Give the backbone structure.
Amino acid sequence: ALPDLSALVHLVKLGLNDNRLSGPLPAWLGSLPNLEMVFLQDNEFAGPIPRCLGGMPAINMLYLQNNRLTGDIPPELGSLTHLTRFKLLGNDFALGPIPPEFAHLSQLEVVELPCAAGDYSEAFLKDLPSLAGLHLLNAIKGLSLPDTHTLFTRVRLTDLNLCDNGLVGHLPAGLLQLVHLERLNLEKNAFDGSIPDWLGQLPALKTINLKNNRLTGVIPDALGSLAKLTTLALSGNRLHGPVPTTFARLKTLQVLAVDGTALSDDLPTHLLALPRLVSVHTAPAWTVSFSAAVAKAASNGTTSIASINGTAVTKLTPAPTVASVAASAENGASRRTKRPQEAAFAEEHTESSSTERVVSGGAPTKRSRDATTIASAEILASFTTATPRATKGVARLKRVHAEVDADDHEVHRNMLGQ
């Protein structure tokens, strides 16, 4: 439990996230008149949110996500008129309604809330003119989003996350009104129909996550027009056809995920030259051939792709070239003409290293080292020392993972030193 800090009347920022703190949230938080930022997420606080937290007049950031809080969201929090960021997901709330008093939070820019299935009012959105980021869980479960929904009038939205809400029907064309939208996450819903061409008309989009829906048809060429796109995740849908050749224009694309789809076996070699692409989760039909093509391109330093289906490219064995197989055969013939002593040594050496571990998308297996595998191993060794482009790809992949929660990262880094 936290000690009583109520005497710190000049305290402005309190950052104690990810410290395994437990017990109830301290009521003395509501008595600190100058407190502007509270970061208590990723702890083990339990029990209800104290109603007295509505008495923090200066608070503008309140992060309580990923604890064990229970009960309803107190309506008193609607009095926090300076609040700009509020996050409560990942708790054990009884999932009551969003308090109507939240409509008074006119400065709110980013909100992440759980609420009871279907117990959701559009009035909550109507009076939030500053809203830029919205993440609702379980709020509109099993419903469709009509194009006239109030959500689509929040034209300042840059981040919309409605994953795991059981939403049905086609992707709503009302999204076209969100011209500043940068991140769209509709994963784990039940959207059906095709991916619409108009999605390529949202010029600010950087991230599209439509994984695990019931989408059908082909990937539209129009997505190749999204000049700022960095992440495209379409896994777990019923898509078919090829990867559009227009994707060759996606110069900022870093992550592409199409695993669990029925895309055709047309090898998307146009992806190899994308200068920032570092991670690809492949369709089953072209996993083997694409992996071989990437491995070969990596050995030549002509691709920045660093990971295929979660496996580092440096662990992939490129397909042997004709020249390497010929060279291997020639070496084999040469070994057969060696003096007895040399032949005995070669035989002993070959026997001692007669097996190798081969990565092929799952657990490593063993196979005999014939001329082809020796040639492959030689090629693999030649590019294990990463080329400059491959090195940049690996570094960029690390940056991609580090930017998963980009909207919070800067706040935590500046305010909490994390």
